[in-house]
Amino acid sequence: MQITDTIADMLTRIRNANSAKHASVDIPASNLKKQIAQILQDEGYIKSFKVIDDKKQGIIRVNLKYTDTRAQVITGLRRVSKPGLRIYSNCKDMPKVMKGLGIAIVSTSKGIMTDKKARELNVGGEVLAFIW
User: Fold this and answer.
1) What are the tens digits of pLDDT across the range 107-132?
2) Do the beta carbons of residue 80 and residue 87 sit within 8 Å?
3) CB 27 within 8 A of CB 33
4) Which residues pair with 28 in a beta bridge?
5) What angle do CA 129, 45, 33 make, to 5 degrees?
């Protein structure tokens, strides 16, 4: 089965594994997904991720992060810009997720980055997802 929206598939896999309190989740690899996983790790939403070479597409194994009481660190994930309806934002109108407590992942001309970094660099782009 062909997946049209691979980013939504990645977010759904993370959301489902997080709800089921799994330690890790496997996601089919791509360069875009690696960059998103790197942002999630840098912002402290996941413990780590590792790219596993399976002689085909590759797999990203994401190790999920929980608090000491096994509460979820990621409480919400939402895909914003979809293949059927792209959402773009300039740096002045960049959305703040949960009044700055969450992050927006943005695809800009300077690469994939958070909304905070896009504001710092004064660039806009396609708003891929909200994470809080």
Assistant:
1) 999 999 999 999 999 999 999 999 99
2) yes
3) yes
4) 59
5) 50
Instruction: Outline where 30-121 has alpha helix (H).
Output: 31-42, 115-121
Residues 6+ apart with CB under 8 A from 15: 74, 77
Residue 30 to residue 108: CA distance in whole angstroms: 18
Q: Does the pLDDT value for residue 1 go beyond 80?
A: no
Using DSSP bridges, classify how beta strands 111-114 and 77-79 pair: parallel, antiparallel or unpaired: unpaired
Whole-number Å distance between alpha carbons of 128 and 24 = 23
Q: Going from the N-terminus, what domains does the chain have, and what CATH number goes with each? A: 6-64 (3.30.1370.30), 77-131 (3.30.1490.10)
Taking a C-beta distance cutoff of 8 angstroms, is the pair 105, 112 a contact?
yes
Rg (CA), the chain: 15
